[in-house]
Amino acid sequence: MFASSPFSDLLHHAGLWLRGYAIVLVMMAIGAALERRRPIELLQSRSAQRLNIVYAAIYTAIVEGLRPLTAAATVAIVNGLGGGMVVLASHGWGALASFVIVLLTIDVLEYAFHRLQHTWPLLWKLHSLHHSALDLNVTVTLRHHWLEALIKGCLMYPLVGVLFKVDPVIVGATTFVFMIGNYFVHLNLRVDLGRYTIWVNNPQFHRLHHSSRPEHFDHNFTQLLPLWDHLFGTLWIPAKHEWPATGLDDGVQPRSLFSALSWPLRMHAGRPTALDGKPVAILDKESK
Ligand SMILES: [Zn+2]
Ligand SMILES: [Zn+2]
To answer: Against a cut of 0.70, is the pTM above it?
Structure first.
């Protein structure tokens, strides 16, 4: 067994970064190929997509770089609170039940955090970057502020470790399902699931959450299962031909990498402002 050295640590982290980029590239390539088959919107801004891709590259680098910090926070929280209150099975049918339990737990936590993102002004400053996309497509999937990933990594996901002692393979399997689901729901893909549309989150169901129409605001928060929206009174069942326009209600969105990266600093009272405090709604407004 080789002893760990700074060089081997560096190689290890470089490998994780490369793996992170490879996953993003593969998922975006598959998503783009699917979107060409049956798009919801035929004409979408190429420049917005390019901006999203460059932003996703920076976001991925930061999130991968934060992993040691979130891992250390998880260990500290789980150990501090005496983690693993319930021991979940890791073999046979018991493993399948464990997978479902962890999946449901993470999904309801994601639902709760997402509602907070729309309720607490500070979290909305971060989350509104994601909602500012006028064109919804696979490149929007990672258009999140890195602080959101840090908050979830340090505070939300450790809760699962506090609640359950579970095989990491099972946690990894749920992470995979959430990753696929996250890319899927942002696709510019006309998928009609009919009456099954409220069984699992999908491009039409999530599009309602991104809608720029006020009557759709604060609905369809779920990440995976619309069950939570149904239970907590935030369900909007999309009509067959309901594919609304998306974005913030005033159509403001970042048009440069700098304005995307500084977005939360420029948000004031629900509207982005320049760093000197002047409104930039007109500057950043882009008609479709
Ligand atoms: Zn949202
Ligand atoms: Zn979204």
So the answer is: yes
